[in-house]
Design a protein that fits this description.
By secondary structure, this protein is α+β, with helices and mostly antiparallel strands. Helix 1 crosses helix 3.
Length: 253
């Protein structure tokens, strides 16, 4: 009889393409070691560099490999990548990494203007002994509110059409919703709960990492219980990316 997974930890983190907040140093090793210590079961990463030929030439410690594959090997996790933004020297996007069996489904294009190519990576993970897989949507949204409103609609339409109402669902990532204006409208329209609001009654700041004042990152869930939620603060996190990572311990209802 296999032991059933009673709960698991999901971490969402904008890794700033593996570079320090001001892009002066490569922070891949530090990020990987810090994530290894956390030991999360599922990672939703944003600004993951699939390729950057310029930085490969510039920095010895910049891996030749795609970052999602590199982190997957370092952390012994399965990985999936959704390319959002392509340019002359490479491309970046979102990634989901998982200790559980991982089934990549679709990369949803939610781009609404030419300046910001954005996406939502749809994967499923299968915790041990669970009847249903958990749908994981890893998102990175635009900087402007008017753009995000269109993106909320695109995400909402996608969830309604593609994901069963009874399936355990997580929507996590960098929502850039610094005014906290419309993110919750998306969640409430889909019957989702934000992990920090559930546990703390409010969102907690995640940006900038050194002195966080804005709450940009979110973990929304449906058909799952939230046992606890926390921001990873202080060192080494304050020196690794421009965002702080957030985690939630989730279980079945």
């Amino acid at each position: 009889m296999t032991n059933q997974t009673e709960s698991f930890i999901l971490t969402s983190y904008n890794i700033h393409k593996g570079m320090s907040p001001l892009n002066r140093q490569v922070k891949m090793q530090g990020i990987a070691q810090a994530l290894d210590e956390v030991g999360s079961d599922v990672l939703c990463l944003q600004e993951v560099q699939g390729q950057n030929l310029k930085r490969n030439m510039q920095y010895n410690e910049y891996p030749d490999q795609s970052q999602h594959e590199w982190f997957g090997e370092f952390l012994h996790l399965q990985n999936s990548y959704g390319k959002n933004s392509e340019y002359e020297n490479g491309h970046h996007g979102n990634a989901v990494l998982s200790r559980f069996p991982l089934d990549p489904k679709h990369n949803v294009n939610i781009t609404v203007n030419k300046l910001e190519q954005r996406g939502v990576l749809h994967c499923e993970v299968q915790p041990v002994g669970w009847d249903m897989p958990v749908v994981v949507l890893c998102a990175h949204l635009n900087l402007f509110e008017r753009d995000r409103i269109k993106q909320y609609q695109a995400i909402s339409d996608y969830v309604r059409h593609e994901i069963g109402a009874d399936q355990p669902l997580i929507l996590a990532g960098d929502f850039n919703d610094w005014k906290k204006m419309s993110c919750d409208k998306l969640a409430s329209s889909l019957g989702m709960t934000e992990a920090f609001k559930r546990c703390h009654g409010k969102l907690l700041p995640t940006f900038p990492a050194k002195l966080p004042v804005l709450s940009l990152d979110r973990i929304y869930v449906r058909n799952l219980s939230v046992k606890r939620a926390w921001v990873h603060t202080g060192k080494p996190w304050s020196q690794l990316s421009d965002h702080l990572p957030i985690s939630a311990e989730l279980g079945p209802l």
